[in-house]
């Protein structure tokens, strides 16, 4: 295995532990993967293993057709979902699937989580839509999720949970954290009044600003110029 794959194994292992301690999953549920683009493989968590005991050696390496390249464990049952997203989205290099409580409540009532706070608008790029229901681990579910995700960065699986994607597995994890926070704020705000959703054109601007100008220059994909459109960005 090359160094990039070994690094991905370590990252996925670490994020699995963080996902559990952050309360985004309970028990052994949820799953995480990272695409190692230069090697054309995906590192994914094993099925049904305690996150507190996971080691990098437990990770499973798949090609984009789902064939096991390396690893002695059975891969996550949601591997078809992860692979379908990677095949559909060239910009995605990390996927995190959680069962966080408030986001999952929206999945149960099958209502989208609207972009009512700016960080969620930046990271998701619009409402977190609900994919049509299908049984877990099936190709049907994978197809439904890809369709509902579109070009955004998070999607709900009906009666199931949340999927966050990103340009890295770390970013996908952050997406899941921010969506859960947004879901909580959105649910609370509904109890005290009528939530005001950020206008679509502003959501697009915020998302573009985040991906093009947020953070330090060495971390960005395009040169920093101090503003995006008419908005200064810090």
Automatic annotation (TrEMBL):
<dbReference type="Pfam" id="PF00596">
    <property type="entry name" value="Aldolase_II"/>
</dbReference>
<protein>
    <submittedName>
        <fullName>L-fuculose-phosphate aldolase</fullName>
    </submittedName>
</protein>
<dbReference type="GO" id="GO:0046872">
    <property type="term" value="F:metal ion binding"/>
</dbReference>
<feature type="domain" description="Class II aldolase/adducin N-terminal">
    <location>
        <begin position="10"/>
        <end position="187"/>
    </location>
</feature>
<keyword id="KW-0479">Metal-binding</keyword>
<dbReference type="InterPro" id="IPR001303">
    <property type="entry name" value="Aldolase_II/adducin_N"/>
</dbReference>
<dbReference type="InterPro" id="IPR050197">
    <property type="entry name" value="Aldolase_class_II_sugar_metab"/>
</dbReference>
<dbReference type="GO" id="GO:0019323">
    <property type="term" value="P:pentose catabolic process"/>
</dbReference>
<keyword id="KW-0456">Lyase</keyword>
<dbReference type="InterPro" id="IPR036409">
    <property type="entry name" value="Aldolase_II/adducin_N_sf"/>
</dbReference>
<dbReference type="GO" id="GO:0005829">
    <property type="term" value="C:cytosol"/>
</dbReference>
<dbReference type="GO" id="GO:0016832">
    <property type="term" value="F:aldehyde-lyase activity"/>
</dbReference>
